[in-house]
Each structure stands twice: as C-alpha cells, then as structure tokens.
Amino acid sequence: MDSIRRDVLDFYINLGTKVIDESHDQDTTDLDKCILYIRHSTLNQETSGLQILATGALGGRFDHEAGNLNVLYRYPDTRIVLLSDDCLIQLLPKTHRHEIHIQSSLEGPHCGLIPIGTPSAKTTTSGLQWDLSNTEMRFGGLISTSNLVKEEKITVESDSDLLWTISIKKTGLSIQDHTP
Amino acid sequence: MNLFFFITHILCRTAKLRLCADGGANRIYDELPLFFPHEDPFVIRNRYKPDVIKGDMDSIRRDVLDFYVYWGTKVIDESHDQDTTDLDKCISYIRHSTLNQESSRILATGALGGRFDHEAGNLNVLYRYPDTRIVLLSDDCLIQLLPKTHRHEIHIHSSLQGPHCGLIPIGTPSANTTTSGLKWDLSNTEMRFGGLISTSNLVKEEIITVESDSDLLWTISIKKTGLPVQDHKP
C-alpha cells in the first residue's frame, strides 16, 4: 500500500473492493503477491483451465521486469501471461511439448523464443518462419528473436524452460459503449 | 528528466562518435527540438546530428534522411543484412572503427522496452561482445554486462544513479556470487531463474564489488533529477 493514492483507495473500498495490506512483506514483488493470492483462492481450485493475465509487469525498471519474469519460472505449473502494449510473454516449461494456437487478428507476426535462465541444448519448433531443429540456443550465441509466425499452430519442444513472446497487433478496435 | 536531455547535454559533449539506427534518426529529428522550444528547430537538429546513420533503412523517413545527408551525416545502408538487429549493426561499426580503443565505452539508448524479443536480442548483444563495454540506457535504468572473468568494482554516481539495483543471471545460473556495498549483499550465493535473483536491491556504498562464476547483468535505476535546460551558445 505504499503507492496507492488516498482518494483512489477510498473510492474502491466504498464500492466493495477487498483491500489486503501486505506492507509487512517486503520480500516479494507486487506481481508475486497477486499470483499467490490467486493460487490460494477457491477459484483456482475449481477451474483447472485457469489462466492468469498480468499487465504492467514489463518495461520500466529492468530489475522489476526481471523479477516479474522470474515469477513465471517460479510457478511453472500456473499459466501466467504477461501482457504489454507491444507483446505478450509466457513460459513454456521443458516438461511438455507445446502447441500454441495463434489468433492472427490479435497476435503476431513477430515472435521469439528466449532461453532465459538456462541455455537450451536442443529446441525443435514447427510453424515459424525460421524453425529450430534440435537447435542449441543460449545468451552469447543464438536466441530466436525477430522470428515470424507462419502457421496458425506453432509447436515447441525443448530441453530447457523457454519464454515464448509474440507481438500484439494494434487493431484499432472501436470502443463501444454498452449501456444496459 | 527525460533521457534525451541527458544524451544531448552530457553525452553529446564528450562522445567521439554519435551513431544511430535508422528508426532512431526519426526520433532525434522530431524530439530534440522539443527540448529547446525557444530555439530554431533547424539549429538544434544540426547541432545534435548523428555522425553516422546505419541500418536497414526501412524505418527512416525521407525528409529526415535528406536532412542529415545534406548536413554531412554518413549513411550506411545495410538493408542486405537481415540477420542482425539495428543495435548489432551499430556495435559492429563502432568495433571496427579506428576510434574504438580499449578504454572506449558505448552508450546505447532505445534498446529496452517495446517488443520483448527485440529487448532480449539487444541484451544478447551484451553477451556476444563481452570484451566491449556497452551500456544500455533507458529513462528508468541502465544495464551492463559483468563478465565472469573479472572481479568488478562499480562506482556509483549517486546524483545520477540509484538507489534501486539488481544482478540478473539471464543466460546461465550462478552457483557462486559475492558482492559488497549493497543493502542485501550476496555471499557465495546461488542465483537462478526459478529461484533467487537479486532484484529491488539497494546500493549502500559508493563502490559496489561483484564477483561471480557466471556472466551477470548489472542494473541500476536512473534518477529523474530535473536538471534545468541551459542553452550553451558557442
């Protein structure tokens, strides 16, 4: 609660928003605290198809951004998507072969696979402009950036946890006011 | 304080070479005159023109290109080379230029934020040229590589930097990192994604030391100091 303005806090409390003061816990980031809350909430247990969308986690101070990327690595069994104006990021754990369905009206074509944290000795993909085939990826060498999605379905299999990132289209959707 | 102000008033005075990628040229052309609202934009654009514009030339506007070419900026069209990023092309140019010396340092802006794959590609440039001192600058922070081959002493300019800082093992985990001068120092501490990484740390001393078995990214926040814009006429 060190950033919230008094008038903002009063407004939301008045409308029924639940406020949980965690100022005693300085060891975890804001995103961390939110993810923990969701993981422990009853909603999470009911819906196995739950996906968490988080905005505001990218850009700004790089140590903050890195800490937020680390949240994806620390909870690999929870599906978390980080969203910014320009792109989305999600973790592809090494334990699975992944099939990513591209919603081309909203996403792409620019994409990448980033071996943050550990190098990958072998990654194989399909559906990209420059597919990987048991290819090694590491910082200091090759990482897949400025790639393009070619198909509607991308597959990725790797010996290492990877970050998948794809650009978000500025679609110019008109804002419609649905008054009840 | 906007980053562009920092660039023009501090860096442009001491830089041996001013180089930008073609998209960056548009920004310099459009935005620098905004910092000097009482001066003729033409004068400002000329005073702070880059020495070189290098890139694949797919982003630069025709009027911007014509202006800088006319006033003597060297333009290098690399559109045939699609395999390297703009930052890559600029770093290569500098490394091969006669101006580059062991003591040279490269400051790069515009490499962070935006698309994450671009940002990751730019961080990778630091890892691919560990013997070249490159600093990535944004409005909020700077980032530089601390190669594992050396014990590092970082001098903090506390009027411009800090206190927020971090050490990030982006490419490989670290089994052993030791620091001094931070609020939460590390002592042969293991760091890895999925576990502990040093973020939201604070600089406590004027000299920070770091020694690690792994290449680390050092990052420190930039202060918004509100320096006044002063016009230094020659």
Automatic annotation (TrEMBL), chain A:
* Domain Thiamin pyrophosphokinase thiamin-binding per the UniProt entry, residue ranges: 96-162
Which is a Gene Ontology cellular component entry for this protein? cytosol
Instruction: Report the InterPro entries cross-referenced here.
Output: Thi_PPkinase (IPR006282), Thiamin_PyroPKinase_B1-bd (IPR007373), TPK_B1-bd_sf (IPR036371), TPK_catalytic (IPR007371), TPK_catalytic_sf (IPR036759)
Q: Short name of one Pfam family for this protein?
A: TPK_B1_binding
Q: What are the protein's UniProt keywords?
A: ATP-binding, Kinase, Nucleotide-binding, Transferase
Q: What is its EC number?
A: 2.7.6.2
**Broad class of where this protein is predominantly found:** cytoplasm
Q: What does this protein do?
A: Catalyzes the phosphorylation of thiamine to thiamine pyrophosphate (TPP). TPP is an active cofactor for enzymes involved in glycolysis and energy production. Plant leaves require high levels of TPP for photosynthesis and carbohydrate metabolism.
Name assigned to this protein: thiamine diphosphokinase
Q: Which gene encodes it?
A: TPK1
From TrEMBL, chain B:
Question: Which residues constitute the signal peptide according to the record?
Answer: 1-17
As for family, the record states: Belongs to the thiamine pyrophosphokinase family.
Where would you say this protein principally sits, based on its record?
cytoplasm
Q: Pfam family of this protein, just one? A: TPK_catalytic
Keyword vocabulary terms for this entry? ATP-binding, Kinase, Nucleotide-binding, Signal, Transferase
GO BP annotations of the record are: thiamine diphosphate biosynthetic process; thiamine metabolic process
Identification of the protein by name: Thiamine pyrophosphokinase
Subcellular location per UniProt equals: Cytoplasm, Cytosol
